[in-house]
Amino acid sequence: MGEILMKKFFSKDSFVLSSFDKAQRRQSLLVSIVLIVLFIFSAFTFFNALYAFADFVGSIVSGSPDAAIRDITRSLPLILSCFMSIWGMLLFHALFRNVSDERRIKSMKKNAIALLAFAAVNFIAIIVMLIMGKFHSIVEGAPSPLYPLDSIIYSLIYVAIGVFALVYLKKLQEKIPYVVPSRGAVVSKARGLYCTFMSFWMLIALFSTASFFLGLFIVDFAHGYLLYCIGLMLIFFVNMLFIGVWEFYYNELKEENKKAFLLPLAIAGLVVAIIAIVLYLTGLTTGLDGPSNAGFGVLPVAFAASVNIATLIVAFTPIIVSVVAVIKGLLLRRKK
Amino acid sequence: MKKNTRFIPVLLVPLLLTGCGQVKKYREHLDDYVFTMKYHQNFNILQLTDIHWNINSSTYESERYMDKVLAEANKHIVDTQGAGAKIDLVELTGDMFMLANSYHVDSFIKYFEKKSEEYGFKYASIWGNHDRHGMYNPNWIGDRFAKAKNSLYFEPNDDIYGRSNFMINLTADGNKGSEVKWQIANLDSGASFSETALSPFRDYDYIRTEQVNWWKEEHILANATTTIDVPGLAYYHIPQEENQKLYDEVQKNPTSHKNKFFKLEGFADNGNEEYASNFLDEAKQNNLRGAFMGHAHNVDWTVTWDDLVVGLGVKTGIELYYAHIDTKSEDPAMKKGLADTGITENFDLIGASLVTITDEESNIEGKFDLEHLYLNERKGGDFVAWVKY
Asked: What is the pLDDT of residues B64-97, one digit of tens each?
């Protein structure tokens, strides 16, 4: 039984793509590549926004709301860049909600309009802040040499993406065939809970992806906390892996395979998550000052608030995700 | 590649990540930790603390503010000590950054290099808890400070706690080997730790015993060059438990210790006896004359403990948080601070502090003056006040 399942796990016939022709597979691959690129952009801009937010919270808890508001206003382009990136990603992710042309077009239009609105607000906000003297020049600098000009350029790129999507939608309506694998509709039952969990998971995945790649440069592996650092990086990697498996493995399976595969996948995920967290906690036990000396650059909120609970929440995220997957797998089995 | 050798690169990765370097025993390299500068009467040390450049900062505005602080300090020194006097050393006592990135670090160092050339000072940077908290590897930032021309910074792979502990010996001719007149310790007071792996909160770090032992050995080494017990100053970031103990003593008996300036929040030490440092206790017995730190932005309270002056510097600039001093406030701590300083108008508790070592070169007694500078940018003309301790 296990052997048969293992074979099916990696069999091409288990996937929707197996029923596609070459052109359709190419189209599907292109959408996946665009999504991966936009996901990475979202991850890094989310990380920037998290930094801005952590400083904002730091000023608030220290009793300086004036400094908090002053600072977050200056970083509005950073926050809006994050929103633009996420909505750009959602815009293309809507291609996966391919239950019907009507639904897909509606969803893409909605996201494209939101994206254009964020870009417009960003552009206007920067111009207003320049006029008001909040920015002393269009290339004042900090946090990057060309800030806030680079944010305007970033907005223009996303305006182009939004306009392209709207034009493309028009062409879609003119019956250009479109066939990437469908994700199926979100069931109306427990829709709120589902959307909340998926949003939470998306943010965890964005944070973990940025933290993993930045962590390769930020985390100090050479300061005597190697086990802790490896545990930390493993947790980020596992979170990144989970979203990858979900999007590009599980959701590409044929419907009949999804039910059969979810529980074994979720259990495997849970085992990996437990290994990661045990390694993390063991590393932490061997050097209780490890996070602050080696890894706090990737744990922005944790240090700003001087609470350990935030580091622990980060550590337990893969467990939360895999436990939810196990529950879903069990429910699906019961439905059988 | 043969099967049994193909894993060698994989096995090498952890070694590369850990730097492969051998941990140096500090006792065998005591001299490596020492920078030297030439001592002269009226040696001026300007302390800038908790500048906190972060992702939300306008470095343009922060630089403009620091330009004013440096210009004011330089002017004050010339006015009070005569032409030719200058800022000799700038002590950056931690939290230069928080949630910053490599652009901030590069801009910061570029700024201080430029100002060093302009005013003729050297600058020493000390780790604060938040300096480790950015979009860069802490090793990289240490490397940048170590390589900067006018920066005094040393970060060995050693067996002392902290990233960087080093001495600046003020000697008769500015070189190693000559008579040490004064000794300035720069200590890394760490960041934070959790008491157990699952503790919900983190404690602020403290100066560890091996750092104290290192300091004592460096002091013995300095004493070996001269016939006197070399007086010292220490700069670090996080206040240790003695600040609170002394404050409590003053609260019980206001005349027990000379004290001055503002204490508008806690010292933000860990407050835990189990993790208390013995640094000031030990250093006090070894002719330490002043210990200056940062960390708590709303505090610049300074107290004299026998012959040792212990105080927090004035927060530099407007990042993160700072106190608004209100002359109408009923807060006893604010009222006392205002009475101490004699300032009669509202202002923000930001600026710098200045230590001037006043000993004649031929007669080292461990004397210095301490002044706090409060400087606020204002549209109708900046607010500037110097208050002597």
From this structure: 999 999 999 999 999 999 999 999 999 999 999 9
- What letter represents residue A308's amino acid? N
* Sign of CA pseudo-dihedral B45, B50, B53, B57: negative
Q: Does A62 touch chain B (CB under 8 A)?
A: yes
Q: Which of A66, A281, A308 to mutate to test the interface with B (most CBs of B within 10 A)?
A: A308
Q: Which residues of chain A does B56 touch, with a Cβ-Cβ cutoff of 8 Å?
A: 52, 55-56, 71-72, 74-75
DSSP letter string, A242-281 = HHHHHHHTGGGB-HHHHHHHHHHHHHHHHHHHHHHHHHHH
In chain A, count H helices and then E strands.
Answer: 12, 0
Is residue B128 within 8 A of residue B50, CB to CB? The reply is: yes
Q: What's the predicted TM-score (pTM) here?
A: 0.93
For B208, phi then psi, to 5°, come to -85, 165
Q: How many CA atoms lie within 13 A of B321 on its CB side?
A: 21
- Between CA A18 and CA A10 the distance in angstroms is 12
Q: Of B87, B92, B91, B89, which is closest to residue B52 (Cα–Cα)? A: B92
Determine the residue type at A247.
Answer: E
Q: Are A317 and A276 in contact (CB under 8 A)?
A: no
Longest CA span, chain B:
81
Are the C-beta atoms of residues B186 and B233 closer than 8 Å to each other? no
Determine, for residues A288 and B198 on separate chains, whether the beta-carbon distance falls below 8 Å.
no
Give the integer Cα–Cα distance in Å for A284 and A235. 13
A146 close to B (CB below 8 A)? no
Smallest CA-to-CA distance from A324 within A226, A213, A212, A194 is with A194
Q: Which of A198-212, A303-317, B77-91, B269-283 has the lowest mean pLDDT?
A: A303-317
Domain spans, chain A: 20-184, 186-336
- B323 to chain A: nearest residue by CA? A64
d(C-alpha B242, C-alpha B322), whole Å: 23
Q: Which of A221, A229, A308 sits opposite B199 (nearest CB)?
A: A308
Please report residues of B whose CB lies closer than 8 A to that of A277.
Answer: none
Tokens for B299?
């505090």
Q: What is the pLDDT of residue A305?
A: 57
CA distance B323 to B321: 7
Q: Which of A55, A71, A220 sits opposite B139 (nearest CB)?
A: A220
Give the closest-approach CA distance of B318 to chain A in angstroms: 8
Residue B86 burial (10 A CB sphere; 0-12, 13-18, 19+):
middle
So what's the ipTM on this one? 0.92
Type and span of the H or E element at A91: helix A76-93
Is B321 within 8 Å of A289 when comparing Cβ atoms? Answer: no
Q: Is the pLDDT of residue A90 over 50?
A: yes
Q: Per-residue pLDDT averaged across B33-47, rounded?
A: 98
**What is the β-pairing status of strands B203-204 and B122-126?**
unpaired
What is the full DSSP assignment across A283-323? HHHH-TTHIIIIIGGG-HHHHHTTBSHHHHHHHHHHHHHHH
Which residue spans within chain B are E strands per DSSP? 34-38, 43-48, 89-93, 122-126, 151-152, 166-171, 180-186, 192-193, 203-204, 232-235, 259-260, 288-293, 302-305, 308-312, 324-325, 347-348, 351-357, 368-376, 383-388
Enumerate the residues of chain A whose CB falls inside 8 A of the CB of residue B19.
Answer: 221-222
Terminal Cα distance for chain B, rounded: 72
Could you tell me the domains of chain B?
33-388 (3.60.21.10)
Band of residue A10 on the pLDDT scale cut at 50, 70, 90: confident
What is the amino acid identity at position B244?
Q
- What pLDDT score does B1 carry? 42
> Which tokens sit at B118?
């302009």
Main-chain phi, psi angles of B282, to 5 degrees: -70, -45
- Identify all chain B residues contacting A75, using CB atoms and an 8 Å cutoff: 55-56
